[in-house]
Amino acid sequence: MLVLKFGGTSVGSIENMTNVKNIINDGQRKVVVLSAMSGTTNALVTISECIKYKEIENALELISDLHKTYIQTVNQLIHQSDLQSEVELYVSSIFDTLKTTVNDNYSTTLSNKIVAQGELLSTFIFSRFLLQEGLNACLLPALDFMRIDKSNEPDCFYIRQNFNRIINELPEADIYITQGFICLDAEGQIANLQRGGSDYTATIIGAAIHAEEIQIWTDIDGFHNNDPRVVTDTHAISNLSFDEAAELAYFGAKILHPQTVTPVRDLDIPVRLKDTNSPAAHGTLITNSIHGEGIKAIAAKDGITAIKIKSARMLLAYGFLKKVFEIFEKYETSIDMITTSEIAISLTIDDTKNLSEIISELEKFARVEVDSFRTIVCLVGHHIVYHPDTPKLFQILQDVNVRMISYGGSSNNISLLINTGDKIETLRKLNRYVFDLVPA
Ligand code: ADP
Ligand code: ASP
Ligand code: MG
Fold first, then answer.
1. Among 210, 211, 374, 406, who pairs with 206 as Cys (CB 3.0-4.6 Å)?
2. Domain residues for 66?
3. Which residue positions in the chain have pLDDT lower than 50?
4. pTM score > 0.90 for this model?
């Protein structure tokens, strides 16, 4: 079986939904994972923030605006009267529920419940659209099988058991439509796989059913060699290895959720990135094979905090790093980059939830400096660390204000820490130096 995931823009207009229908209507049995229609999750997040800050009127207005958009979409998409009444009833019930939440006390669970409505809406509407168009499709509720455990990892055993049970209980269908992003947590409450999580849903399902292939359909013709939102002249890469894709996704390439390849890399299930508006384009195929050499792509991850830990006692001492790492472990905060000298360690984190506790503990034995608004720029390619062209990269250091550099931690990755304000210029400069071979 194949798993196909369609992102927000792919289901964000009548025209794109029609494209999706044509793509999936090929007679092959498949699971189709859908995101919320583009803009919906952002709107739901804002509604949830309004409830948090008791801005009830704003919340109600946003709910009403969103409801109007959905009424329009349904009217344009569904013409068959019985299906139209069914969808209108469903959409109204969702918006009625949303209206009742505005007076509830804010909690993470309430927010998760609100944010989950986007995928519930898109899948219901799209499944009825397929029925109207005569396709043999069936809705497969993600909350009946998708669950994360106490460490927020997918509960693979539960997912596999329940997915297979449900699919066997449902009427035989060619196309099973399910919600991306949403899941239950270990306590059975509504949760999610974090923003952009529908990609992750697709590979979790793909791993659970040992799919032949997972296809991630989006609004661009594949994984580009640099961020196309800020750099012109980028191009799609036809092949990436799981390792390369994992590094790029982790270090900020928005096209993939950071965890996307994790469930499938050991199972060697290919992941193909495809463009919904241009289905004939090759896209990007992610597998275990290695293709090409040198630096293949650049990505950037914002929201990084750098911490410098300085201690004269570090000089010739052993056990210092252990003491430092134990503090980060205690506060469940992972470290992205690290460099050391005789008397100082610099490291970066992206989760600052427990930053003040971490600093207090470090200050018991070291001087600590914290710098926010940093960005990690990451250059990726198979064994780039050994490639003869890579050292040329250092020539650009005279042009770019690099705060930290990590070279050799993995042979596929070189990371630079810069000020977030310098990001766009750095990505553009690197693009020229690395891919256009402009002398520095
Ligand atoms: P979807 O809603 O389909 O999940 P996303 O917006 O999450 O789509 O991801 C696709 C977008 O990611 C593209 O439109 C593009 O602007 C952005 N993007 C950022 N970095 C890259 C990259 N390296 N390659 C391709 N797209 C990228
Ligand atoms: N709808 C969710 C989001 O906007 C999940 C996704 O699109 O993958 O983050
Ligand atoms: Mg996405």
1. 211
2. 2-218
3. 439-440
4. yes
